[in-house]
Write a structure and sequence with these properties.
Helix content is 52%, strand content 12%. By secondary structure, the protein is an alpha+beta fold.
Length: 720
């Protein structure tokens, strides 16, 4: 039975058939080859429609004799089979063979010229006018598998890049201008390879360039040198000059290992206006490697870490793109981590479908490279036939926006910009959008970690229960087996002893010796049986101890959780009781204060009522009004403090209603008890009496001497 890991890495037969049916003969083979080395004769300028998906071509490197045996063989023009070598872990896990499907498979005897003429000649022609469709080619694989040879080649067998330059200049029109830019990504820093040549021997420490992206998704590198070439010879010279500055170093697996990702950009623009039309990009990725096999240390080890990290990011990007395509109806898409590596960020538009994208996978058929090769095939198969038709057809990659409006003369301005530049670091222009994506990805990772923790705890619990159950079953079976063996031994020995006794009268010395041997055998069997019983008892005791330990551990865990919950509940209860006690004390204080305010208000009203009586003169109406206002304000503030909201007035409080009614009733009683004065005529009122003889009349209260005062006093008397 195939394990889960092997099933996830093998494409289903139905998908294989659909993918093979989607590939036509015109897309994978060209009957008429284009000789890129020929510069004379009639120009061949055939344009084809490149499918709206990412193409993945597999190329198998020839295996030297010292690297035999092989573990890869082609099963057809579009698939290969890889088998685990003898003694490998995969053979013990029933993963002896895996099948991977690609757009096209090229075996070890394929040359660079055949590969270019069959797969790249029409795509390169599409970059010219009128198609103007960009092309991006990636060389991907482990170290020492021939990626650089496929890209650069040699004098006898030129690589894809020299043949592309030859074909472009052979077929381009007079109004098309070709320029070359080259840079490498070394330890996640971008360096201008043509800028090295412009600085010469006095270059000193190389300058790291920025990678920028604007709001429209356009990606470019400010300060990157651009060399305008007019012939294929000039282009090849510029290519050789830039590649000579690429960083190489010997390792345990490759005598000349590339230590950086090299990028060659061929931009095609309008010769008159300088407007960009298309670009052809070649990316020679550094090979993945293991420190255990390469023996890298120090600087070489840091280089390996940077290379493997960027290639892992590339694999995660391909995996996320494949998941988003296979789950197109899902509400939430997976985040594609383009910004986690410079190489994936620089060519984000190419992976999203801007133009034609080709992934050239170079593999080694040697069984020594089985594990590394399986990882490469796994990620490369994810990109096979990955649809890109929903994205724009033209790529805007590594073209500075100013180049669309103003054309630079040669490379002088770019070289000066590089020479005057300072040491720069990579700056992500995403801003808040990147922060949100990172936060979202962080939340997903936290949820995944929590889920894995729960699964691990559950699996450990199930494993412990299963182990205890298996131990018990084994002990029971062993006990039953030993009992059966004991019974059979006793039965056989008793039968033999009985036969010997029956033949005892005529027994000879030999028969006696045989009987003695049987007795000794019986004693030995009984000793073995006792030993077996002791072992069974030890096993049973160990099982009981394990069960008790497991039960005790679960009980202790449950007790700890229960204790913690009780402690939390007690603390919460104590906190609530303290809050209730504090609130009760505050309420009592407010009640006392309210009672005092009530008494003060009643006393104030009584004093005011006394001022209204005719027996005592009081102050002016303004003084009475002020006294009422001060009393009302004091009572309103106290009520607001107690209840948290304003009250209509002091006389509306329910607890004071009866007192106010009693006070209001007193003036009527006073009026009834007063003596009635006799009426006098006008003459009597007008007659003046001497001061000494005049009676002292009862004075009118001051509050009633004016019309406003009388209205105020009447309103107060009518209050209930």
């Amino acid at each position: 039975m195939t394990s889960r890991k092997s099933r996830s890495s093998i494409l289903k037969p139905r998908k294989l058939e659909e993918m093979f049916d989607s590939l036509s003969e015109d897309e994978v083979e060209v009957n008429e080859e284009v000789d890129a080395g020929v510069g004379v004769g009639k120009r061949k300028r055939e344009h084809s429609t490149v499918p709206g998906k990412m193409e993945v071509f597999l190329r198998i490197r020839p295996t030297p004799e010292e690297a035999l045996p092989e573990c890869i063989h082609a099963t057809g023009s579009n698939s290969i089979a890889i088998s685990a070598p003898e003694g490998h872990m995969g053979t013990r896990n029933a993963e002896k063979s895996r099948i991977f499907a690609f757009s096209k498979v090229y075996e070890a005897d394929t040359t660079n010229k055949e590969l270019f003429s069959k797969q790249f000649s029409k795509r390169v022609n599409n970059a010219l006018y009128p198609a103007c469709e960009s092309l991006a080619v990636f060389a991907y694989g482990i170290t020492a598998t021939g990626k650089t040879h496929s890209m650069e080649g040699n004098s006898a067998d030129p690589g894809i890049i020299p043949q592309t330059l030859q074909l472009l200049f052979h077929n381009k029109s007079s109004d098309e201008e070709v320029s070359i830019s080259m840079y490498e990504i070394y330890n996640e820093c971008v360096y201008d390879m043509l800028g090295y040549a412009s600085k010469g021997s006095n270059a000193g420490k190389p300058t790291s360039l920025k990678l920028k992206e604007d709001g429209s998704g356009q990606i470019w590198i400010p300060g990157l040198s651009r060399s305008v070439v007019e012939t294929s010879e000039q282009a090849k010279d510029a290519l050789a000059l830039g590649l000579s500055y690429r960083k190489h170093a010997p390792t345990g697996m490759n005598k000349r290992s590339s230590r950086s990702h090299a990028v060659v950009l061929i931009n095609i623009a309008d010769a008159g206006t300088g407007e960009w039309r298309s670009s052809v990009s070649f990316v020679d990725l550094a090979g993945s490697e293991r420190a255990q096999r390469t023996g890298n240390e120090g600087l070489r080890l840091r280089e390996s870490v940077a290379i493997n990290s960027s290639l892992m990011t590339l694999g995660r990007c391909l995996e996320a793109l494949r998941w988003n395509h296979d789950n197109a109806k899902a509400k939430r898409k997976k985040h594609v981590p383009f910004r986690q590596a410079k190489i994936t960020h620089a060519f984000k538009n190419a992976f999203l479908g801007s133009g034609s994208t080709v992934l050239l996978v170079n593999v080694s058929a040697s069984a020594k490279d089985y594990e590394e090769t399986v990882h490469v095939l796994k990620y490369a198969s994810l990109a096979t036939a990955l649809p890109c038709s929903s994205q724009p057809t033209r790529a805007v990659v590594n073209i500075e926006p100013a180049a669309k409006r103003q054309r630079e003369a040669g490379t002088g301005a770019a070289a000066a910009a590089v020479a005057a530049g300072e040491e720069m670091e990579y700056v992500s222009p995403g801003g808040e959008g990147d922060a949100e994506l990172l936060a979202e990805e962080n939340e997903e990772l936290i949820e995944e970690v929590e889920r894995l923790k729960r699964e691990l705890f559950e699996s450990e619990r199930r494993a412990a229960e299963m182990e205890a159950r298996i131990r018990e079953e084994v002990a029971d079976e062993m006990s039953e087996l030993l009992r059966e063996m004991e019974g059979s031994y006793h039965a056989r020995l008793e039968a033999e002893v009985g036969a010997a006794k029956s033949a005892a009268p005529g027994a000879t010395d030999s028969s006696k010796a045989e009987a003695e041997d049987l007795r000794r055998a019986l004693s030995a069997a009984e000793a073995e049986l006792s030993e077996a019983k002791a072992e069974i008892g030890a096993i049973q005791r160990a099982n009981e101890e394990n069960e008790h330990a497991l039960v005790d551990s679960f009980k202790s865990l449950l007790e700890e959780e229960t204790t913690q919950l009780k402690a939390n509940a007690a603390m919460e209860k104590e906190t609530l009781e303290l809050q209730l006690e504090r609130q009760r004390q505050e309420n009592e204080g407010l009640t006392v204060r309210l009672r005092r305010m009530k008494e003060a208000t009643v006393a104030t009203l009584r004093r005011y009522q006394a001022n209204l009586s005719p027996s005592r003169p009081v102050g002016s109406p303004l003084a009475l009004t002020k006294l009422l206002e001060d009393s009302e304000k004091e009572l309103v503030s106290s009520v607001e403090m107690v209840q948290g909201q304003p009250e209509p007035g002091p006389l509306h409080h329910p607890s004071l209603a009866e007192d106010f009614c009693d006070l209001a009733a007193e003036p009527e009683e006073a009026k009834e008890n007063q003596p009635v004065a006799k009426k006098r005529g006008k003459k009597a009122r007008r007659q003046r009496k001497p001061i000494g003889e005049a009676k002292v009349a009862q004075p009118t209260p001051v509050a009633r001497r004016t019309r406003a005062g009388r209205r105020a006093c009447a309103a107060i008397e009518n209050v209930n």
